[in-house]
Structures are given as structure tokens and as C-alpha cells.
Amino acid sequence: MSEAGSGEIWFYHLERSTLDQVLPELLDRTLQRGWRALVRVGDPGLMETLDERLWAWREDAFLAHGRADQPHSERQPILLTSDSANGNGAQALFIVDRSDMDASEPFERCFIIFDGRDEESLQHARGRWKTLKEAGANLAYWKQTEQGKWEKAA
């Protein structure tokens, strides 16, 4: 997805928060930037959970979104999908649950979100980092401080 000089790839290492706590915040910031988002999810159960979570994100707000397998998916500001098509013309790609990623995808930014408490996810993310680094990708690594704030560590 990112040869040297193209889009950024940001790794988010979850240690203190869960995916359903972090993802809505990142999606909200993405929309505030004027971008559309594509959330690639491999597990159908997780897709269902995220779909529900985004509608009930906060008491006073929700994140408008849709699923790629539903009508009018191309109009959605946030699109949940399990395939590689960029069905809503998104500028931001979110990779969760070790979903696939194509090295040639033309996104402004890719967020790879992984659970640092799960050894398999951690090893997968390390392997992905190494492969992308060797390919000359524009990488950043973010981790949470003890106060819950995100800090760029690499």
C-alpha cells in the first residue's frame, strides 16, 4: 500500500483500550478532516459488533456508516467491508483483526489497529511492520500512555 513517498501507514498498538473504544474516535477525526473511511474487517462477528457500536458510539452522537453488502454503500462516509474494493472512494483505510492489505492501495492514510494483549496479533503486526519498512513505506507507530493519550513512538 505505500511505497516510499505515497500514503502514510500508522500502527495503533492497543494496550489500555479496546478496538470498540478507539476505532470510533479515529473515525470521527477522519470525518472531521473531510475524508471518507473504509474499515476492513475479516471476522463477520466483529463486523456486526462494530456496525452496532458505531450507531451507539456516544449518547449524543453516532457515526453514519454502512456495510459494503448493503444498498447505496458508495454513499457512505464510513464503509465496513470484508473485501478489498474501495467502494466509497475512501481516503483512509482502517485494518482491523489482521485483515488483508494490498501494497498498492492508494489511500492517504492507513491505520493498522492491533491488540497488543494478543500475542498472535502482536506478532502479525510486527511482521507487517518489518515487511512495509523494507518496502520503504512511510510508517508511524502510536502507543497509549498510562493516561490513555496517544503518543507517537516511531
Automatic annotation (TrEMBL):
Domain of life of the organism in this record?
Bacteria
Q: Name one GO biological process term.
A: DNA replication
Q: Could you cite one Gene Ontology molecular function of this protein? A: DNA binding
What the entry lists under Pfam families is as follows:
DNA_pol3_chi
PANTHER family the UniProt entry points to:
DNA POLYMERASE III SUBUNIT CHI
Q: What is this protein called?
A: DNA polymerase III chi subunit
**Origin organism of this chain?**
Brevundimonas abyssalis TAR-001
